[in-house]
Amino acid sequence: MKKIVLFCFVLCLQMTHAQTNRLWQGYFSFNSLKDVTRKSSTVYAASENAVFFQKPTDGFLETITTINGLKADNITTIHYSEAYQVLLVGNDNGLLLVVDKDGKVAYKNGILTEVPVPASVKKINHFNEYDGKVYIACDYGISVFDLDQMEFGDTYYIGNGGAQVKVYQTTVYNGFIYAATDSNGIKSAAVTNPFLIDFNQWQVFDSGNWLGIQAKQNQLMLCNTNNIIYTSNGTGFNPVYTLGQAAVDFRVVDNYTVITTAQKVVVLNAGNTLETLVNTSQYTAEPVTFNAAIVASDQLYIATNEVGLLETGMSSINLQVLKPSGPDSNQPFRLLKTDDKLFVTYGKFNFTYNPYSPTPPYQPYLLPINYFTKDLGWSKIPTTDIFNARSLSSVAVNPKNTSEAYISSYFSGVLKLEDMVPTVLYNQTNTGTNGLESLVLSPPDPTYVDIRINGLKYDSKGNLWMTNAYVDKGIKVLKSGGQWQSFDLNTVLTEPFFERYGQIQIDKNDTKWIPSYRANGLIIFNENYNNKCLLVKTGTEGNLPSMDVRCVAIDNRNQVWIGTARGLRTISSADTFINADNIQSKAIIINEVIDGVELAQELFYEQVILDICVDGANRKWVSIADSGVYLVSANGQETIYHFTKENSPLPSNNVADIEIDGTTGEVFFATEKGLISYKGTATKPSDDLAGVYVYPNPVRPEYTGTVKIAELTDKAIVKITDIEGNLVYETTASGGTIEWDTTAFGKYRVASGVYMIFISGEDGIETAVRKVMIIR
């Protein structure tokens, strides 16, 4: 190995790429729970796409998420097999996930890919384990899963004439399997019958309307759509309890019958008399609805749609919340990372900028604001404090007063926070004649107020800029002195009263770069140049691939990256705007090998680009609709990573927003199924090498990650040697942090010992030396 003289050495510029151990972090919500199950005294609870459980030894809450390999779709039901020590997770698309006792996840796609029925009827409704088999009740019938072989067996279509029929539940009683269906009553057959695949073997047990059926001791328990619970010995029905409400979950456990409605949980004892009754009104912290419940070790656990899992004793009701720390929703929409906080909002609007929900009550979303701090974890500003502001989207923190923040509402105006407390909702009533405006309906309705504000961004003078959709004066600013101003671009824009806008970016010249949706392409505006405004459009007017501009980013070298609904364009310098009368964008051309032939292609040709974010190394993180996230090099010529749901812990291939912590390099992804981050290393470079530090240090035997060297200057040269001066690693920093995988140039792990780290600035003048101890 070559050696470096410790007192006099020359550092050479050399780029190397080390294989590193990247870390992911999940920030999932467990507020909305879909089902519960148990393993002895351990209760498992499932949210939309993750599971948590409480370890009985220490009470610690442990999660099973995409970080652990649980890539669920939309969880509908779960079941723990005590005999086989596996957790079964069913989804609304038929996907079955099997989690073993070591946490390993197996994907069983038999229903998803092989059952020849429409995708819309593959939902898994219930698991019933009996004699080494799981009878899976689905919207089309019953599928059998063999726990010994861990594979699917037969599928039973038990509707009249062999038709598909939705099966709510199955159970086995006195040698017969019973199935409660939504339109064919209850059907039954001998469970040992080898020909259950033949619908003729299934007989009608009762033609009534039943929601559930469960075996309990020497009887059947049944739940009817008339909201009455019955027992049966196989020949008749006896009513034992009247719910008065529609059941949403029905089960038997430990000889208890547990029935859940949206407003209450009823527990019947072995004698079918009332043991416990819990109403939603008994939880007073906030309104809740119930989804499912289970009994374990004489405790009742209730899955709610709003606050996670509620736990109480059976005899004395004292509802306590049980859930891992997390945000309020798994549908984050916009993020902002400041020095000490991560803001999350949920007020989504759709692809055409419509903030109204597509389902009842057809209103813009009214959801809380979350923020995360390292010391306190997750906090929230509840909906009761935000003046009924709906569809909250982008966040901006005043750089001159970080206790002051603003959140745009794509329906209600702009919400002001002081020390994280909402103080003012700015709208058309309190911003003057030159302030915020409501859209005008046709024909006009003076009672209708709809103020669609988006894209908050501060300029260098402390002025807060934003867009106001569906009005002539679509660009607004709240001056640092508190005055409001509007800019009428009616003579420049095409039909501004129909236009909608994306997130504003502001360059070092205080020029505003504004994506538009409908007819104006990329809008470039600067009030300091006599309200100069240019449009970058398609064809000869700017060479954009689409007039629908979804996002814009200005990189560390002042280059403009433009994401549209049909691909990517760049502008070589934002400064071009100052003197230009017309700006042409350019595609990035890369060479791709297709069928063995190298061809020139546009980067992200015809792709819908949702967001672009620039990291500390000037690389670009690019979100593509339905295709996950790409990390490309500073010039776009090299794809460094392509993260998808299939090859990474991303819970969805649709990433609405990307945000980067410039200090740590952590990259946050707001997906439609949860918030997740990637522990990147492209932090912002430091101005000097005085603060360089190494972590972890020492590196202990149980640690499996990489060593980080942080607070570097850009293009700092790093060389690592053993104590004798043998070179084991060298690289050049791109940004403020580099990683070392503790191998000698990726070939073998280095031995225990002290390793010297020699750092030199790009110019070779400034240097620093650090040490790291490695213990194997």
From TrEMBL:
Domain of life, source organism: Bacteria
Q: Which UniProt keywords apply?
A: Signal
Q: Where is the PorZ N-terminal beta-propeller domain?
A: 43-203
Identify the stretch annotated as signal peptide in this record: 1-18
Q: Please name the NCBIfam families in this protein's record.
A: Por_Secre_tail
Protein name per Swiss-Prot or TrEMBL = T9SS type A sorting domain-containing protein
